[in-house]
Amino acid sequence: MPAKADKHRQGQGGPSGGRAGLPRVSRAASKKRDDDVSTEAGDVAGAGAGGKALIKPPDQLELTEAELKEEITRILKADNPHAPQNIVRYSFKERAYKRISHVNQMAIHFSYDGNLIPKDSDEGRRQCMKATTGAEKAPDETSAETSEETQVKGEESTGDTQAAGEETAEESGTAEVAAAAGDEETPPPKKPEKKLVNQFNFTERASMTLNNPLREKACQSEPIAWKDFSATVNQWEIYDAYVEHIQKMEKEKEKEKSKPQAIKKEEEKKKERKFTSLEFQSNEIAKISKAAKIMERVVNQNTLDDIIQDFKYFEDESDEYRDQKGTLLPLWTFQYDKTKRLAVTAISWNPKYKDLFAVGYGSYDFMKQSQGMLLLYTLKNPSFPEYIFSSESGVMCLDFHNDYPYLIAVGFYDGNVAIYNLKATFQPSYKSCAKSGKHTEPVWQVKWQKNDIDNNLNFFSVSSDGRIVSWTLLRNELVHTDVIKLSVEGTTAQRPEELQLKILGCGTSFDFHKKIDYLFLVGTEEGKIYKCSKRHSSQFLDVFEAHHMAVDSVSWNPYHSKVFISCSSDWTVKIWDHTIKTPMFVYDLNSGVGDVAWAPYSSTVFAAVTTDCKAHVFDLSINKYEALCTQVVVTKKKNKITHVQFNPVHPVIVVGDQRGHVICLKLSPNLRKMPKAKKGQEVEKDPEMEIAKLEKLLNLVREPAKQRCEQGGAAAPPGPPAEQTQL
Known about the structure:
Blueprint: H1 2-13, H2 22-49, H3 65-69, E1 88-91, E2 96-99, H4 122-136, H5 140-170, H6 175-183, H7 235-258, H8 261-303, H9 305-313, E3 328-334, E4 343-349, E5 356-362, E6 372-378, E7 387-391, E8 395-400, E9 407-412, E10 417-421, E11 430-431, E12 443-449, E13 458-463, E14 467-473, E15 478-485, E16 493-494, E17 500-501, E18 507-512, E19 519-524, E20 528-533, E21 542-545, E22 551-556, E23 563-568, E24 572-577, E25 585-588, E26 593-598, E27 605-610, E28 614-619, E29 629-632, E30 641-646, E31 652-657, E32 662-667, H10 687-712, H11 722-726
Antiparallel strand pairs: 1-2, 3-32, 4-5, 5-6, 6-7, 8-9, 9-10, 10-11, 12-13, 13-14, 14-15, 16-17, 18-19, 19-20, 20-21, 22-23, 23-24, 24-25, 26-27, 27-28, 28-29, 30-31, 31-32
């Protein structure tokens, strides 16, 4: 039996037997693998025996045997380490916040939206139905061919399985032959593939466009000819050149004289034609721009009809139930794209055109100075400014001339002053410079004054450098004259050389008396108010210890010749009689006061704006203790109100903020009450009546104030009025 097995193995291992030789090959391959492994192990042993040292990094940690044998256990959890553990939700049942005990620990690392459709869904059934109907509609010939192919494949597969059965029966004695026969079992017959149907009627096509050929074109110009010229010049050569030039000019004049008069007339006509054509073009442009402005105003009046109706006719009837309190009705907001990052630094109404006002733009953040702008708006067109002027430095103040309403005096942050003419170009007609005596610090206020003796226009300016300067407009330049220099009393610095240096005060605001030309007031950063005169440049007429911080604004009453008002960053507004050193009324507004203004229609009404975005309107004849209206008029987010002004005719005020917006607000009837007429009498609109109304209020507090001044002396610090102390 073993001999037969050997012969049988030899017959299968010959050239005719093919399948039985596979086990021997696999055994040889396994033997070869063992040899390779043994050689690799030998190489490693040899390398160790050869004396080659292992390379270790210098910073490798050396551990002892105890540390190496120590077992370190780590527990892996399914919790997400990044999941929050302190989520709180509000419990409506317990009316308190409760911590959530269960937190979702699942972390999604990858997600992808697939396009597989379940077979049980409606869309899957629809596609299966389409596939089966397409297979049934196939032609009969293809079905016959496929059936024949399947039969042939079935016969071949049955023959192979029979032969494999015989061989396995013969080789059942040996395990190697059985394993080989098991490895070479034939795969099951393949099912016929279904033909895919094109459901989208798609055909792939390609096209190619022509690419334009690139062309290069180059040209070279001839180099410019240049020459070196050098010569020495003396006085005689210069004299000869001047003489030659004069002779040429004389010859040209003789030629012009010798020309016939007809040629001269033709040349003059040509020049006149040129000038007339330019004038005609400018006139046409002016006409077109005027027509465009009128059309723009008409369109705005149609779109903003509701606001215009409120401006003209609306009267808040609810004032009757407010116990003499009033409100401010917002009308328009004037803004320009290029002034969004600039603050409103000055506002002034035109004395002739009551709907026109000028706005100066700059910055009070002195670490972030940039360019400034001067814009002129009108109530007839709130969408776009009428005139636009830009400047290199920020505009700090401005003022219209009373007799010439097209002239505007402007003061800048860099110390310059300028005059803008609305009839001329967009550049200033006059501007100061270092030679003409400009200020060295920002100019805080400018005011036009009456013409001088020679009938020249002049205006005054005040600056932080302590100088009050008078500027006179001559033909082509501005001429300056220092009127007075502010000095801080009691601040003389003594030098080792026994020299005394006076420290100059910093002027922040000033105002001239409405009736007495030479009298004016100056507010300073030290909180003092100086009463000065144009006639005395060396000393002050009087000094008021007014505020504890910088005086932001000071203004004479338009009716009463003795009364003026001041405001400061120390939160207070004070009303003064310039003959008494203590204030008549003191109002604390709980925030820094940016500006204050008297109403033009009453001697007892004034408005103030604070840094907390509120506007306050007072009427002393109705309530002398608190404001009739305190209202937030702009958004508070990083914003402040900087200036306020009354319209000279209409019952509106304009307010400017730090974001470049100008808001127009209408006063309610309680804020502009006129004196009631008695039966059978008409209301007298006389300034004397306004003076008497304010004088009556001042008499209530004037005598206690005088007594305090007499008790405390001339240099006594100001105190609150008698009526305020009772509160």
